[in-house]
């Protein structure tokens, strides 16, 4: 029976774990949600002896990769996966980037270093743009009064529905190792996404603001510092993967039909790159 050990059971990895269990897999995971203390070396190494597959969704820490630093010599499984970020490509000034593009030139140098280490270890590295899904989308930001429209003409982003990440990782279980961009087919401005969410919820869009007027956090401001379109052709060709939600309109309409946007009284949702 296939057995997956997941390092870090966050938003995306928890949905992957559910999908694997639905297919009859045994899934163990570190972290409070997974039940295995990441710092308990004996328990982690014991779980690694049982695992046929390993996936890490743990972000960089102190400029390095915690999983490889502590357990790299123990991760000997033939299939290894890592949830990375398309932030490794840096600013492309709105141009398209694929897996052949240079990495390490943007603000996420730590992520780029970890991405390269996992690739060097023979892993399947999934580069993810802004992640959205149930409880974590523009619909929720509108419902919570946290939606912004920023006046930055020509600024575009790529994004991906969490369930399309899950289907991409599942498709890669029998595919060659390497880097794969998992993104939708339609890069678009954040303003367009917010406007679509407002339309679906019957609300007026928020006013158009400058970056200074929006008073964004440093993390959110950094989101607007880079401009690129992420190409997903390799994942389609090699994995036979196709996003079920090829654009933000399809994804938001499906969420509106099946989930209730989180209200302003709910706790804030994690950042869009948290796995």
TrEMBL record:
Q: Which UniProt keywords apply?
A: NAD
**UniProt cross-references to InterPro entries, sorted A to Z:** NAD(P)-bd_dom_sf
The family database entries (Gene3D superfamilies) matched by this protein are listed as:
NAD(P)-binding Rossmann-like Domain
Q: Which PANTHER family match?
A: EPIMERASE-RELATED
Name it.
SDR family NAD(P)-dependent oxidoreductase
Q: List the source organism.
A: Allopontixanthobacter confluentis
What phylogenetic lineage does the species belong to?
A: Bacteria, Pseudomonadati, Pseudomonadota, Alphaproteobacteria, Sphingomonadales
């Amino acid at each position: 029976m296939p057995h997956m050990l997941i390092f870090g059971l966050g938003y995306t990895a928890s949905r992957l774990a559910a999908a694997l269990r639905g297919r009859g897999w045994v899934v163990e995971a570190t972290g409070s949600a997974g039940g295995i203390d990441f710092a308990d070396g004996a328990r982690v190494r014991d779980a690694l002896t049982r695992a046929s597959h390993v996936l890490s969704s743990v972000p960089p820490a102190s400029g390095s990769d915690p999983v490889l630093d502590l357990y790299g010599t123990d991760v000997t499984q033939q299939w290894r996966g890592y949830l990375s970020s398309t932030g490794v490509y840096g600013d492309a000034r709105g141009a398209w980037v694929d897996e052949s593009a240079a990495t390490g030139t943007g603000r996420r140098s730590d992520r780029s270093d970890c991405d390269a280490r996992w690739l060097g270890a023979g892993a399947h590295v999934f580069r993810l743009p802004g992640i959205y899904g149930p409880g974590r989308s523009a619909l929720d930001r509108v419902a919570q009064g946290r939606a912004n429209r920023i006046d930055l003409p020509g600024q575009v982003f790529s994004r991906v529905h969490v369930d399309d990440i899950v289907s991409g990782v599942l498709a890669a279980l029998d595919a060659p190792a390497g880097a794969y961009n998992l993104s939708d087919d339609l890069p678009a401005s954040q303003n367009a996404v917010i406007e679509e969410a407002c339309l679906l919820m019957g609300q007026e869009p928020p006013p158009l603001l400058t970056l200074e007027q929006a008073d964004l956090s440093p993390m959110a401001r950094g989101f607007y510092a880079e401009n690129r379109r992420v190409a997903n052709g390799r994942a389609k060709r090699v994995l036979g993967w196709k996003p079920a939600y090829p654009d933000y309109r399809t994804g938001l309409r499906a969420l509106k039909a099946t989930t209730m946007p989180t209200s302003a009284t709910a706790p804030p949702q994690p950042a869009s790159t948290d796995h």
